[in-house]
Amino acid sequence: TKIDRIRNFSIIAHIDHGKSTLADRLIQRTGGLTDREMTHGQILDNMEIEQERGITIKAQTVRLTWNGYELNLMDTPGHVDFAYEVSRSLAACEGALLVVDAAQGVEAQTLANVYQSIEHDHEIVPVINKIDLPAADPEGVRQEIEEIIGLDASEAVLASAKSGIGIDDVLQAIVDKIPPPKGDRDKPLQAMLVDSWYDPYLGVVILVRVMDGAIRKGQQVKFMAAGTTHLIDRVGCFTPKRTDLPELGPGEIGFITAQIKEVSETRVGDTITDAKKPASAALPGFKEVQPVVFCGLFPVDAADFEKLRDSLYKLRLNDASFSFETESSAALGFGFRCGFLGLLHLEIIQERLTREYDLDLITTAPSVVYKMHLTHSKNEPAQTIELHNPADMPDPNRIERIEEPWIEATIYTPDEYLGAILKLCQDRRGIQKGLTYVGSGAHQRAQVKYELPLNEVVFDFYDRLKSISRGYASFDYEQIGYREGDLVKMSILVNEEPVDALSMITHRGTAEQRGRGMCERLKELIPRHLFKIPIQAAIGGKVIARETISAMRKDVTAKCYGGDATRKRKLLEKQKKGKAKMREYGNVSIPQEAFIAALRMG
Ligand code: GDP
Ligand code: MG
Questions:
Q1: Percent of the chain at pLDDT above 90?
Q2: What is the pLDDT of residue 74?
Q3: Ranges for the Tr-type G domain (predicted)?
Q4: Sequence-separated (6 or more) residues with CB below 8 Å from residue 314
Q5: Which of 173, 6, 154, 192 lies closest to 94 in space, CA to CA?
């Protein structure tokens, strides 16, 4: 295709504003699929969980042909956990459709995505969707787009993706408003690796955006950051059906395969060039993604350990951004320490393991990555280490200071929930950075900005926010770097012995409250023994919370075991069997269920 006939665009929207529905409708209108093939709904969201949760995890691209134009529609993951993937996809486009729900107006993720898009110098075409709804207020939303985002929305397209209204207008606006890509066919090949995934038939499939030059079947290419060379064996695009092509020219988006076995050999953001005639420099902006939230995953049934390992390997085939390594815990046995891009990412992986791989798992409390500045010791020099697991906490005497990651959160909420939300942020060590009102009338909402330690958000912040606002508040965040914090490791001791799986790093100010909560729960969960069991939360040697499980009364036992000898033997046998699933701490048998319950409520 001639370059001035190409348009590359993405769709940005807050969750549920109609991005997937609009994408389906565009595919249908341009003839990518017949009506019969459309019956599946949400063509681009092809993973089961994506469909159920209505979120897109992996970016996909579809080539549409319309009025002699080649339109490459790039679907982007809408959630902040996948911000880097979003950013790569945006870098491959010249424009974006901004879809805003005509009844809901601008929301937190609309804004975050728009700002990213603006940073990439995109031409943004506002689309006010769902105008078929009785509650639709296109005029109000148009004003909101101008007022909050500062975009000219006078020519915003009014559409209903569901009823098929305004679809041709959307296509025409793409052609008219979004500029064609720039690129030079005569320059050496320079293509950006936008995404990659594992396909059982093709091996690793790589999504690329060609900047200059062309990429062809049979070409020897070099991945500049990875430093590897590969022979291209297939070039094509998705319409959304896979279609092979002889080449991808400048400005085009499509896929290549090169007999690559694992996704981990490819790096999103890498530059692909010709091995014989390489470009002089790589494209800007290559960044290694780093997991920011870690937790332990343990099989409830120890026999499932190998199955868990296999399943993690399989999931890794399609997602090089999560990491895992074996971990052993006295309480939970063998499992894995896993790293994720964020909480949603953690939940998705956990859910896929449970659902698709049929595993019953225990998840330890999520932890962020702390930077520990250590003084020198007899054997080691002063150094800074990254701590992913509270169990690896270094000797407190060597800790000079600890830094933790912070985020800036943007929350939109109807006024009536504002008080409760401010309190929640305040309780989580938040620093208020701004409070303004946006929109008017029924659309008016408060926009609150807070700086918060990520550590306070990974526990249950999002759930709490949703419940106190009855689902009306929207939330988004970005990381803003590390700050020093008064952080301590809190250990939980059962009958004077520390239980590794329950230890956590918390702020000194909230440690007591957390510790008390954990002790109270364990008191309920651990059965009585013949002796008194102290349950303590401690920082270093200092106990900050304590509960006691009183001893079973002798006569109760006597009654229970007394009399009938067979009954007594049966009871003992039953106990022995039960023991297999118990863990011993300072002579106290703790049923596995107690750990699971304690952690799940954590
Ligand atoms: P996404 O999260 O932005 O991808 O949103 P979806 O495309 O999954 O749409 C979310 C919900 O809104 C679905 O139930 C859609 O059927 C519905 N929806 C999408 N577009 C329209 C529209 O134009 N009108 C109405 N009434 N509903 C719509
Ligand atoms: Mg969607």
A1: 43
A2: 87
A3: 4-182
A4: 357
A5: 6
- Strands (E) in 388-541, as ranges, are 399-413, 431-438, 445-453, 474-485, 487-494, 497-498, 504-507, 533-539
The yes-or-no verdict on residue 106 having pLDDT over 70 is yes
Give the pairing type, strands 487-494 and 370-374.
Answer: unpaired
Which of 480, 304, 348, 467 shows the shortest CA–CA distance to 403?
Answer: 480
Report which listed range, 323-332, 345-354, 369-378, 496-505, is most confident. 369-378
ipTM of the prediction greater than 0.90, yes or no: yes
Cβ neighbours for 205, distance < 8 A, ≥ 6 positions apart: 196, 197, 198, 199, 255, 256, 257
Which one-letter amino acid corresponds to residue 460? D
Torsion of CA 451, 453, 458, 461, to 10 degrees: -50
* Greater model confidence, 497 or 170: 170
Tens of pLDDT, residues 214-232: 999 999 999 998 899 999 9
Q: Phi first, then psi: what are they for 581, rounded to 5°?
A: -95, 5
Which tokens is 390 given? 């509270």
Residue nearest to atom 6 of ligand 1 (CA): 18
* Nearest ligand by distance to the CA of 24: 1
107 token code pair: 């929301």
pTM over the 0.90 mark = no
Confidence of residue 39 (pLDDT cuts 50, 70, 90): low
Q: How many CB atoms lie within 10 A of CB 373?
A: 15
Ligand 2 centroid to Cα of residue 436, in Å, is 29
Residues of each annotated binding site for GTP: 16-21, 129-132
Q: Which residues surround ligand 2, an ion (CB under 5 A)?
A: 19-20
Contacts of 190 (CB under 8 A, 6+ apart): 210, 211, 212, 213, 271, 272, 273, 279, 283
Tell me the pLDDT band of 602, cut-offs 50, 70 and 90: very low
Query: Counting ligands in written order, which one lies closest to the CA of residue 102?
Result: 1
Are 130 and 163 spatial neighbours (Cβ–Cβ below 8 Å)? Answer: no
Bridge partner list, 8:
72
Q: Is 168 exposed, middle or buried (0-12, 13-18, 19+ CB in 10 A)?
A: middle
Residue with tokens 């659902």, as numbered in its chain: 355
